[in-house]
Amino acid sequence: MQYRAEVTIERKSGMLDPEGTTIKRALEHLGYHTNDIKTSKRYIIDLEEESSELAETKVDEMCQKLIANPMIHNYTIDLREV
Amino acid sequence: MTIAIIQFGGSNCDLDVLHVLEDVVGTDAELVWYKEHDLDKYEAAIIPGGFSYGDYLRAGAIASRTPIMDSIKKMADEGKPIMGICNGFQILTESGLLGGALTTNEYPKFRCEWTNLRVETNDSPFTSAFKKGEVIRIPIAHMEGNFYADEATLSKMEDDDLVAFRYVDSEGHVTEEVNPNGSKENIAGILSGNRNVMGLMPHPERASEEVLGSNDGIRMFKSMVEYISSR
């Protein structure tokens, strides 16, 4: 089966997000007030596995081993069959 | 005694480190391309600065997963000194050889400037030639040098005397103003639990000759050489 996983990586709460802070400041220059801006990264991974459970396990391993740094990141996996 | 200088695609301080080791310190050193597996003949390793793999994913993330890092871990387990400078520090935290993580500077700008560092411990293979509390001048050049660790890790590092250097003013005081990147507790360099792995964001190889404005950095390399000779 073919699957597509959308992985979103975010900083853990309490960590600085300098890019978000900079964007917030730039928006203020344009007259938009926001309470907070957080940035995240999204990876789209296409893979083949026998079941969605196996695919999810594989992608979770990829996140643990490389895509995220578990010390500073939280991540979510959104998996669907394609 | 030969020190390995590990080169990844995108390393760019490798030749500076080689020059300092060979021409200034006067020890044997060799550039080692990351595809090499066997590092047994080397007594120590330095992972130099640069932008390995274009800082893709996170600074140091890709390099830290290359097979040569297994050989670096083996060297570390054998008690051999391993020093990571700048991108090398990022690679060492990403590989798990050092605690914490290095993230984007609090003000997200590439900062290339002189810093004052306070030597927090001289009980290590890299800092034995310094006096504890001494203030030295070494430049930084990075955008992802903001050292982060959770409170429990920071307090453990404190208890175990694993902070090697902090950013300070010229009098040796830790202040917010002299923290160039937002690092927790002004941390500029740290040691591993068994003290033979050190990572630091400042570049000692750029401050190892008087003509460059400071030669304080040379004592890190000399400490290493002395440690290797005494093993």
Automatic annotation (TrEMBL), chain A:
<dbReference type="GO" id="GO:0004642">
    <property type="term" value="F:phosphoribosylformylglycinamidine synthase activity"/>
</dbReference>
<dbReference type="GO" id="GO:0005737">
    <property type="term" value="C:cytoplasm"/>
</dbReference>
<keyword id="KW-0547">Nucleotide-binding</keyword>
<dbReference type="GO" id="GO:0006189">
    <property type="term" value="P:'de novo' IMP biosynthetic process"/>
</dbReference>
<dbReference type="Pfam" id="PF02700">
    <property type="entry name" value="PurS"/>
</dbReference>
<comment type="function">
    <text>Part of the phosphoribosylformylglycinamidine synthase complex involved in the purines biosynthetic pathway. Catalyzes the ATP-dependent conversion of formylglycinamide ribonucleotide (FGAR) and glutamine to yield formylglycinamidine ribonucleotide (FGAM) and glutamate. The FGAM synthase complex is composed of three subunits. PurQ produces an ammonia molecule by converting glutamine to glutamate. PurL transfers the ammonia molecule to FGAR to form FGAM in an ATP-dependent manner.</text>
</comment>
<keyword id="KW-0658">Purine biosynthesis</keyword>
<keyword id="KW-0436">Ligase</keyword>
<dbReference type="GO" id="GO:0005524">
    <property type="term" value="F:ATP binding"/>
</dbReference>
<comment type="subunit">
    <text>Part of the FGAM synthase complex composed of 1 PurL, 1 PurQ and 2 PurS subunits.</text>
</comment>
<dbReference type="InterPro" id="IPR036604">
    <property type="entry name" value="PurS-like_sf"/>
</dbReference>
<comment type="pathway">
    <text>Purine metabolism; IMP biosynthesis via de novo pathway; 5-amino-1-(5-phospho-D-ribosyl)imidazole from N(2)-formyl-N(1)-(5-phospho-D-ribosyl)glycinamide: step 1/2.</text>
</comment>
<dbReference type="InterPro" id="IPR003850">
    <property type="entry name" value="PurS"/>
</dbReference>
<keyword id="KW-0963">Cytoplasm</keyword>
<comment type="similarity">
    <text>Belongs to the PurS family.</text>
</comment>
<keyword id="KW-0067">ATP-binding</keyword>
<protein>
    <recommendedName>
        <fullName>Phosphoribosylformylglycinamidine synthase subunit PurS</fullName>
        <ecNumber>6.3.5.3</ecNumber>
    </recommendedName>
</protein>
TrEMBL record, chain B:
<dbReference type="GO" id="GO:0005737">
    <property type="term" value="C:cytoplasm"/>
</dbReference>
<dbReference type="InterPro" id="IPR010075">
    <property type="entry name" value="PRibForGlyAmidine_synth_PurQ"/>
</dbReference>
<dbReference type="Pfam" id="PF13507">
    <property type="entry name" value="GATase_5"/>
</dbReference>
<dbReference type="GO" id="GO:0005524">
    <property type="term" value="F:ATP binding"/>
</dbReference>
<keyword id="KW-0315">Glutamine amidotransferase</keyword>
<keyword id="KW-0963">Cytoplasm</keyword>
<keyword id="KW-0547">Nucleotide-binding</keyword>
<dbReference type="GO" id="GO:0004359">
    <property type="term" value="F:glutaminase activity"/>
</dbReference>
<feature type="active site">
    <location>
        <position position="205"/>
    </location>
</feature>
<feature type="active site" description="Nucleophile">
    <location>
        <position position="86"/>
    </location>
</feature>
<dbReference type="GO" id="GO:0006189">
    <property type="term" value="P:'de novo' IMP biosynthetic process"/>
</dbReference>
<comment type="pathway">
    <text>Purine metabolism; IMP biosynthesis via de novo pathway; 5-amino-1-(5-phospho-D-ribosyl)imidazole from N(2)-formyl-N(1)-(5-phospho-D-ribosyl)glycinamide: step 1/2.</text>
</comment>
<comment type="subunit">
    <text>Part of the FGAM synthase complex composed of 1 PurL, 1 PurQ and 2 PurS subunits.</text>
</comment>
<comment type="function">
    <text>Part of the phosphoribosylformylglycinamidine synthase complex involved in the purines biosynthetic pathway. Catalyzes the ATP-dependent conversion of formylglycinamide ribonucleotide (FGAR) and glutamine to yield formylglycinamidine ribonucleotide (FGAM) and glutamate. The FGAM synthase complex is composed of three subunits. PurQ produces an ammonia molecule by converting glutamine to glutamate. PurL transfers the ammonia molecule to FGAR to form FGAM in an ATP-dependent manner.</text>
</comment>
<keyword id="KW-0378">Hydrolase</keyword>
<protein>
    <recommendedName>
        <fullName>Phosphoribosylformylglycinamidine synthase subunit PurQ</fullName>
        <ecNumber>6.3.5.3</ecNumber>
        <ecNumber>3.5.1.2</ecNumber>
    </recommendedName>
</protein>
<feature type="active site">
    <location>
        <position position="203"/>
    </location>
</feature>
<keyword id="KW-0658">Purine biosynthesis</keyword>
<dbReference type="GO" id="GO:0004642">
    <property type="term" value="F:phosphoribosylformylglycinamidine synthase activity"/>
</dbReference>
<dbReference type="InterPro" id="IPR029062">
    <property type="entry name" value="Class_I_gatase-like"/>
</dbReference>
<keyword id="KW-0067">ATP-binding</keyword>
<keyword id="KW-0436">Ligase</keyword>
